[in-house]
Amino acid sequence: MTNRKLGLGFLFVFVLAFLAPLRGMSEVAPAVPLEKAFSAQEQDRLISMFEAQFDRQYLTQVFGDPRLERIESLIKKNLLTQETHRDYADFMNPYSMHLAKRFQKRWEATLEQASRQFEVDSEVLVAILLVETGFGNVMGRYPVIGVFASLLVEFDNNQGAYPIAPGTDPEQVHYLERLAKKAEWAKSELTALLTLSAANGESPYHYKGSYAGAFGLPQFLPSSYLKWGFDGDQNGEINLSHFGDAIFSTANYLQSHGWKRGLTHKDNEEAVWAYNNSRPYVHTVLNIAKTLHDKAAKSSTQSPRGYGLKGTVGQDGRGLESKIITDKF
Ligand SMILES: [Ca+2]
Q: Is-above-0.90 flag for pTM?
């Protein structure tokens, strides 16, 4: 990702797509311990990376916290995942559209206010919040700080491999090049996380999100929170787990990235692309928004047959990402 976030949308797709087949599934993936504590030396390196901007005592407390763990699986995911290969088509299914219409009705006044203030069509806000987290059903379980710290330490531990020697295996070259780029990004996002945590009087461990460090209903990266987070419900704080703030922040983001009122405006594909650099994502979001717009007059909030309103899927016991809780809003 370039300048913002990676959503958990694909997980929600996964959950929806496999609701029915899982009923007959008996195989359960074995639990593998993927985390390990950073060494004292690694903690010191992290402290030194940020001490120009933050108080050393604060950094010692943050990076010495036993909750800080190296998350091996996240390092690989961030270095190998290709967002553009994901399939978002399932978000157009009847159940997703039912959720979207229900959300539209429940948050009608807030959506209307944000739409007016930022000149962003309300249907695209609904579409993004659906694809990102299923309106809060799939918010992410990883400590955001762990995502960035893991990448930084992985890069630091590989310092000896730079500059990359001629003749290095091409796969290794790709890994190292991407690692260097991601480490730079992780440093800037971790700086933003520490900044916003301090501003909100929260521990940085308070924020949980996707494997790519995006959190909250709209799945913002910390840097996006600082730039485009908006106190939509006017309670004096920006909390992206609250729908009022999430709706206004998403509208603010889209307006800042060139959204022009009118779902078919040619600039709008680029505004959604800025939100998530994936063409399938862009097309899905705009298709959902147009469908909601076209069907507005005859919208019904009746639950379609064939979908349970509650249910737990994913038998790996991973909690939040495995659950569908449809009455959250
Ligand atoms: Ca607020």
A: no
